[in-house]
């Protein structure tokens, strides 16, 4: 019997209402766990993709920056010679700058010309590009999250066209194992 103004709360006493809540928890809890696992999986997958992308961008940036420095020095030069004391190295011979602007990494020869050497040096398991003898400041390989190693570096004269030199550099990301290569040719008129 329902009392006036009392509502229907007395009807549900002593029924299996507690069983319905228990069943809802049994159904909702695994769904909630699966939803959270899906969100966490998506989050970690996105973070993995972000770090892979970061490593590839760092590879491109380091190789392009180093190659730009090589090209800048080559365009000021008169000739490019292979050096025998290093495995993958070369020297850019340039005339004396009339303004006297030369860096520490340029060596002056007795004939008044300057030599800038480029070579690879292994530091902590990574082959880094070195300009001159500046081992303390390599051009590549110093980013902590995306180590870049330079695998190929060469400059050679084109046998069919005097004064044309081909330049080549290839770097590899130690994180993704992706490679990035740049090549170009410059014309140096000689002395």
Mean pLDDT: 81
Largest sheet: 5 strands, antiparallel
Number of domains: 1
N/C terminus separation:
115 Å
N-to-C series of helices and strands: HEEEEEEEE
Low-confidence stretches: none
What is the oligomeric state here?
single chain
Q: Work out the helix count.
A: 1
| Outline type | rod-shaped
How big a fraction of the residues is strand? 25-35%
| Portion of residues within helices | 25-40%
Number of strands: 8
What is the element layout, followed by pairings?
Elements: H1 17-75, E1 77-82, E2 89-94, E3 106-108, E4 114-123, E5 126-131, E6 148-157, E7 164-173, E8 179-187
Provide a concise account of the structure shown.
This protein is α+β, with helices and mostly antiparallel strands and 191 residues long.
What does this structure look like?
It is a single chain. With 191 residues, the protein is of the alpha+beta class. The chain is built from one helix and eight strands. The strands form two sheets. Strands 1, 2, 3, 4 and 5 form a five-stranded antiparallel sheet that branches. A hairpin with a 5-residue loop joins strand 3 (106-108) and strand 4 (114-123). The termini are far apart. The mean pLDDT is 81.
């Amino acid at each position: 019997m329902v009392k006036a103004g009392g509502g229907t709360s007395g009807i549900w006493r002593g029924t299996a209402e507690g069983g319905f809540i228990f069943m809802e928890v049994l159904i909702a809890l695994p769904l909630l766990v699966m939803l959270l696992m899906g969100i966490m999986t998506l989050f970690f997958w996105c973070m993995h993709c972000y770090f892979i992308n970061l490593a590839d961008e760092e590879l491109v940036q380091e190789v392009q920056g180093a190659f730009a420095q090589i090209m800048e020095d080559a365009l000021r030069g008169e000739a490019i010679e292979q050096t025998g004391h290093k495995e993958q190295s070369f020297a850019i011979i340039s005339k004396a700058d009339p303004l006297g602007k030369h860096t520490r990494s340029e060596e002056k020869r007795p004939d008044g010309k300057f030599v800038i050497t480029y070579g690879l040096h292994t530091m902590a398991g990574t082959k880094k590009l070195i300009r001159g003898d500046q081992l303390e400041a390599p051009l590549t390989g110093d980013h902590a999250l995306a180590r870049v190693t330079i695998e190929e570096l060469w400059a050679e004269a084109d046998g069919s066209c005097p004064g044309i030199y081909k330049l080549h550099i290839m770097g590899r990301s130690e994180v993704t194992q992706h490679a990035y290569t740049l090549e170009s040719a410059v014309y140096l008129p000689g002395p």
